[in-house]
């Protein structure tokens, strides 16, 4: 940087210091905070909470408005994955040479699969 750039930066810093953004208004807030508050009023909160909805919709769709709870989510995910794993395990070990059939008296029995060609 050349010396002229340093003086320009110093000038900008001095001008910023002259801007007394710590002046208080009647309410006790600073002017700077008021500007930020006015800007924030223009924006809504993101997500489902910011949208207008009825209390019935909020009661029925509770999961959309509740904060995520890691203590519940962790074990729930593990149990779900365990169930999916068990289903996959049962399908892999399924005996394809037999089937369950209902007898005339209503009981279920395992019967071997036979070919119609035999």
From TrEMBL:
It is found in: Membrane. The chain crosses the membrane at residues 70-89. Signal peptide: none annotated. GO terms for cellular component: membrane. The keyword Membrane applies. Keywords: Membrane, Transmembrane, Transmembrane helix. Its main location: membrane. Pfam families: DUF4500 (PF14937). It comes from the Eukaryota. InterPro entries: UPF0708 (IPR026686). It is a single-pass membrane protein. Belongs to the SMIM8 family. This is Small integral membrane protein 8. It comes from Crassostrea virginica.
